[in-house]
Design goal:
This protein has ten helices and eight strands. With about 350 residues, it is α/β, with parallel strands linked by helices. It has one domain (about 5-349): Rossmann fold (3-Layer(aba) Sandwich). An eight-stranded mixed β-sheet has the order 1-4-3-2-5-6-8-7, sandwiched between helices. Bound molecules: zinc ion. Zinc ion binds near residues 70, 71, 74, 202 and 205.
Length: about 350
């Protein structure tokens, strides 16, 4: 399975630049590099030459992935993988964010001082303000991760719950499903990354996974991307747990109860022996300053564990395997480079 086979040209409707909105006003998209720093081009990610070669080896295009998340800050869960795709494999990552996270005001006391804004109060004005701040935080985080476009669906953040039904009552579910399906059809992503919809996670995460997997199942079987769920494990146990699917939502069934792949964030970053991916994750966390409790997550979660959903079918499984091969090839090219450098140093002495 080649990624190139699923990489058709996008229609005009979804190609936005610099914060422009769609002509028909349905999806609001903002590019990650819009107006945050004076000259983004000075800082844009550069893919090492050997990584480009690796990503294109075997006549495959670079990977293209869609994140679908309920809240700004959910992107942190698979942050190391996203970073590797954008910065090492030269891939493209877009993100749908269903709510603006305006319900997350319980630990915003420190952020009130930082932003000099009343973010904690229970008023309609505060909710709007916090939603705007959280979108801005997401844009900053997206810049770190190299995310190309964010699509904001502006559904209500009803606050913390374990019940997926809350979102089904509060959101325009048909519209959310339709927007996700259109993006999948037009952009032809190879992979879709969701938060793993376990019963103990936020109900909104469960709802978003169920809606996205339904939209994905509407695609022709050979066009389906790999549908992947991520969950991080705390450093204390490192235990990924097991997950086969969410009761009552058959679309969330996974191909195995154990994760199909795990990534240690303490792996040396881009072949650099003294830096690792936890730095990137900590940068992402630090951008979400309105989320006080989330700031306590620095360094707490060491592994990203991935499950494959059955909804992606055989085509999705093949695309997932292809991504893993690309990552392995990149690691091998790093080792070769390190070996060559070590050899050169030995010769010098
Ligand atoms: Zn969330």
């Amino acid at each position: 399975m080649s990624f190139a086979a699923n990489n058709l040209k996008s229609p005009r409707r979804h190609r936005h630049r610099g914060g422009h909105e769609a002509q028909d006003g349905v999806i609001h998209s903002v590019t990650a590099n819009a107006a945050l720093w004076p000259d983004f081009s000075l800082f844009s990610p550069t893919v090492p030459e050997d990584a480009q070669t690796s990503a294109l080896a075997g006549n495959t295009a670079s990977p293209k992935m869609l994140l679908v998340n309920a809240h700004p800050d959910d992107e942190s869960e698979g942050a190391a993988l996203v970073y590797r795709i954008t910065h090492e494999l030269g891939g493209t990552v877009d993100q749908v964010v269903v709510t603006n996270g305006e319900g997350g005001n319980h630990y915003s006391a420190l952020a009130e001082a930082y932003y000099r804004l009343p973010l904690g109060a229970e008023t309609a004005g505060r909710r709007k303000l916090l939603g705007q701040i959280r979108r801005e935080e997401l844009m900053r985080s997206s810049r770190i991760l190299g995310i190309r476009h964010n699509y904001f669906l502006d559904q209500e953040d009803t606050g913390t719950t374990l019940n997926p039904a809350e979102a089904f009552n509060a959101w325009d579910i048909d519209r959310v499903r339709r927007e996700i399906r259109m993006l999948l059809q037009f952009e032809k992503y190879h992979l879709v990354l969701l938060l793993l919809p376990t019963a103990d996670t936020h109900g909104h995460h469960q709802s978003v996974a169920a809606i996205t997997l339904e939209a994905l199942a509407d695609l022709e079987p050979e066009e389906r991307p790999a549908a992947v769920g991520v969950r991080t494990a705390p450093a204390l146990t490192g235990d990924p747990g097991r997950f086969s699917g969410l009761d009552g939502y058959p679309m969330t069934r996974t191909t195995s109860a154990e994760p199909v792949w795990s990534f240690d964030r303490a792996t040396p970053l881009n072949c650099h022996p003294r830096l690792d991916y936890s730095i990137v994750v900590n940068w992402v966390i630090s951008e979400h300053k309105s989320q006080g409790l989330f700031q306590m997550e620095f360094g707490r979660r060491t592994h990203e564990h991935f499950w494959l959903f059955e909804a992606g079918g055989k085509a999705g499984e093949a695309r997932w395997r292809e991504l893993l091969r690309m990552l392995e090839r990149h690691e091998a090219s790093c080792q070769d480079t390190a070996h060559r450098q070590a050899k050169r140093q030995r010769v010098k002495h």
